[in-house]
Write a structure and sequence with these properties.
CATH topology of the largest domain: Rossmann fold
Oligomer: single chain
CATH class of the largest domain: Alpha Beta
Largest sheet: 6 strands, parallel
Strand order of the largest sheet: 3-2-4-1-5-6
Distance between the termini: 8 Å
CATH architecture of the largest domain: 3-Layer(aba) Sandwich
Helix content: 40-55%
Number of helices: 14
Number of strands: 6
Shape: globular
Radius of gyration: 20 Å
Order of helices and strands: EHEHEHEHHHHHHEHHHHEH
């Protein structure tokens, strides 16, 4: 059976769609959200609430502490094991979420033939310190496809791509293509832009009403301020508000703005998948999606 992936920008209604689909098909959800994996980060990551989770089984939510290390390779490994367990129970696994790196992990896979080279990494880091932006220019020249997939500020993945090229003479995008899994169905929710932005803005306000400030204070008291997980949109702005950097009104404004920018980046990323099926989520479109899943996956 083809791997089923439901994605789209933040706030598009991916979770709601999964619940609608579960009325027609015996599915279980494998979350594809890089922040919902963390315990205690509930309000700012818009996790399904306990009642929703009791209605539809979700996996890969609340699996690690906010100060624990996790990456896309671990995600792929764990998610595929869960996928097989769901199939053994006679259910249909459906991946739901908007984290592009996790989609790449599922679709493109990983290659392990190119080991780390600390000397190359140190030299690249030194070069970037001397001339900020030079590594991005190098990547765009050596591997334009990888450059189109890696965010300009993602130095870790930029260095890895350059490391592979300098060590082997081969582009990391080519090696990843060799490990790709084309047997997947990608359904992308594509709401009207103005409706999406309105929903994002309202959701930011509701997060404050539902206790996001107290949630952030609890995390700061328990784990301190050095957490990478607290760099998440919503948590970062509220942390700055708590620290007196700016007012609550400004913090909420920045959450809305930064979330809209993130949604745009997600849409740009998803456009790279030529075989993806895009649709505008409406009540009448749910059965269409179910029919697409049944047809494309022979269910």
């Amino acid at each position: 059976m083809r791997r089923i992936i439901i994605s789209g920008p933040t706030g598009a209604g991916k979770t709601d769609l999964a619940f609608e689909i579960s009325q027609f098909l015996p599915i279980e959800v494998i979350s594809m959200d890089s922040r919902q994996i963390y315990k205690y980060m509930d309000i700012g990551t818009a996790k399904p609430d306990p009642y929703q989770l009791s209605l539809l089984k979700h996996h890969m939510i609340d699996i690690i502490e906010p100060n624990e290390y996790f990456n896309a390779f671990l995600y792929q490994k764990m998610a595929k094991e869960i996928e097989e367990e769901i199939k053994k129970r006679g259910k249909i696994p459906v991946y739901v979420g908007g984290t592009g790196l996790y989609i790449d992990a599922l679709v493109k896979g990983f290659f392990e033939g190119v080991s780390r080279d600390e000397n190359i990494r140190k030299e690249l880091s030194r070069l970037n310190e001397q001339e900020p932006g030079i590594l991005r220019k190098m990547l765009e020249e050596f591997d334009p496809e990888a450059a189109s997939r890696i965010h300009p500020q993602d130095m870790k993945r930029t260095i890895r791509a350059l490391e592979v090229y300098l060590k082997t003479g081969k582009r990391i995008s080519e090696l990843q293509t060799q490990n790709s899994n084309e047997d997947f169905l990608l359904i992308v929710l594509n709401p009207k832009r103005e409706e999406l932005y309105e929903k994002i803005n309202k959701r930011a306000e509701k997060m404050i009403e539902h206790g996001l400030i107290d949630e952030v204070k609890m995390l700061l008291n328990k784990y301190g301020r050095a957490l990478d997980s607290l760099k998440t949109i919503g948590y970062k702005e509220i942390t700055d508000y708590i620290d007196g950097v700016y007012s609550l009104e400004m913090a909420v404004h920045l959450i809305k703005r930064n979330t809209r920018h993130y949604a745009r980046r997600q849409i740009i990323y998803l456009r790279r998948f030529q075989n993806a099926i895009w649709f505008e989520p409406t009540k009448s479109s749910i059965e269409d999606v179910v029919q697409i899943i049944r047809k494309e996956c022979n269910i």
